């Protein structure tokens, strides 16, 4: 009986009720728009954040690779500088006639007059 009586009750349509209903509808519509804007803003922020973080990690990895390469090149530079020092010493020695004569005797078995060269093989230990 309760449900029948409610169906028979009619609501009074006054101007105040219409204004309140319109205001509630407007507030509801604005709230839905606000939620949509926040959702879109959140999605855009999440996408931008993802790209920023992925870029950071890729740049960090590239930086680490460059540091490792730099260390390797420093090591090569030190070795090449040592080799350059040895080669410069060799150039100075090669400008000395006595050193050239010594090399010629040792490697090509050239000898001075009345000189005998004996080649003794080196023993491997």
TrEMBL record:
Pfam families given in the database record: DivIC (PF04977)
Transmembrane feature ranges: 38-57
Coiled coil, from the record: 60-97
Keywords, sorted A to Z: Coiled coil, Membrane, Transmembrane, Transmembrane helix
Domain of life, per lineage: Bacteria
Protein name per its UniProtKB record: Septum formation initiator family protein
Organism: Bacillus suaedaesalsae
